[in-house]
Amino acid sequence: MTAIKVPPLGESIVEATVSRWLKNEGDAIAVGDTLVELETDKITVEVPAMTAGVLTKRAHAEGDVVKVDDLLAEIDEGAVARQAAPAAAPPPAPQAAKEPAPAPSSSNAGEVRASPAAQRVAAERGVDLSTVPGTGRGGVVSKPDVIERAAAKPSLAPAPAAPAAPATSAQPAPMSSGDRETREKLTTRRKRIAEHLLESQHATAHLTTFNEIDMSAVIAVRERLKDRIEKEHGVKLSFMPFFVKAACLALKAYPVVNAQLDGDSIVYKHYVNMGIAVASDAGLVVPNIKDADRKGMLDVTRDLTAIAKRAREGKLTMDDLTGGTFTITNGGVFGSLVSTPILNYPQVGILGLHKTQDRPIAVNGQVVIRPMMYVALSYDHRVIDGQQAVLFLVRVKELMEDPASMLVD
Fold first, then answer.
1. How far is CA 120 from CA 88, 134, 144, in A?
2. For position 295, what pLDDT does the model report?
3. In this model, does residue 38 exceed pLDDT 80?
């Protein structure tokens, strides 16, 4: 019997949540097969099988919190050979062949081949194992088979009290608390996100300043270049690379916005690891583009495409999620018109982007309609003065309204 344990999860990470089992008890396992996915506060870790055999035990259910070196599962290396033996067994005795094979009754449920987890769930939910078709190796009934059968049970077998329903049909059945509320345990990632955001609110002097950007010039540049860039370089040009470039240049002009408070010292970063907030199914993550200030627009576009793909697929690495110095978050993709983004602590600044919307503005004494975007800079007032925050945001506005100036800088 081979024990599968929780592997090291990364620096300072000591626990994870069992996110999804990919193998059931009774399944045949090959070397390298992924058994289970563990979700940490930063990444999803796949746990592979180091030996071949049959998965005989899943020590934790989905949603359980486990620590490094905890037992996850057990694999019986000799079970494959033993399972193959019944397949080579002689045909049934003659008397069994005389009768057609009837559906097994509940009295012989013990003869049904089912995994331990399936037997436990069947007992809890009152499911007759003999009526459950097994999808595991060799027809073994697995836990998901029982759960699926239990879910379909009301439609397959009406309750004995059904004939008496007309007498009481005038009164609606009381709704159980389970119909009105659902309780879901916090995942490790969601707990860490909550702790991180709460720490950001409590540990910083949080303040936000706003401005607005006329997006006409950037829209025109993007429309002119996007087809050629996609054709020649295979990437789609969005507005985010423009904002990344503008933010990097503004951080160069106002380096305190890219700094970090360490005790009684301010640490100035002479590089920009630009964090991009991404909303994934597992929660908010902030992967970052390393040395974004040293990269051109196309390189930034490629990096954005790559990290967005890894975030959607749950393939982000620890390197993707550590070392960020400044963050951009775009609520506009969901329709947000204005918001106050929260700092990605211990960073001291975060730029919030919003929805581009046609609005009337005054240009050279005339009222015109322009595509406008509100932008927000949240900052730690312990490190950044209001003047520096406002001037930083004004610099971003100037660069975005005149994108050609980014080439000069």
1. 29, 15, 12
2. 94
3. yes
261-274 residues labelled b (16+ CB within 10 A) or e (exposed): beeeeeeebeebbb
Running DSSP on this structure, what letter comes out for residue 151?
Answer: H
Band of pLDDT at residue 172, cut at 50, 70 and 90? low
> Structure tokens of 395?
């610099």
Across residues 319-323, what is the average pLDDT? 87
DSSP state of 112: S
Single-letter amino acid code for the residue at 73: A
- Asked whether residue 141 carries a pLDDT value surpassing 50, the answer given is yes
Quick one: which of 171, 284, 301, 293 has its CA closest to 241?
Answer: 301
User: Would you please indicate which residues are annotated as catalytic (active-site) residues?
Assistant: 381, 385
- Which of residues 318 and 325 earns the better pLDDT score? 325
Query: Backbone dihedral region of 283: left (phi > 0), alpha (psi from -120 to 50 degrees) or beta?
Result: left
Residue whose C-alpha is closest to residue 388's, from 209, 123, 157:
209
How far is residue 222's CA from residue 235's CA, in Å, rounded to a whole number? Answer: 13
Helix (H) or strand (E) holding 44: strand 44-48
Sign of the dihedral through C-alpha 248, 252, 253, 258: positive
Give the Cα separation of 295 and 306 in Å (integer).
15
66-90 pLDDT, tens digit per residue, is 888 899 999 988 766 555 555 555 5
Domain annotation for the chain: domains and CATH numbers: 2-93+112-153 (2.40.50.100), 190-408 (3.30.559.10)
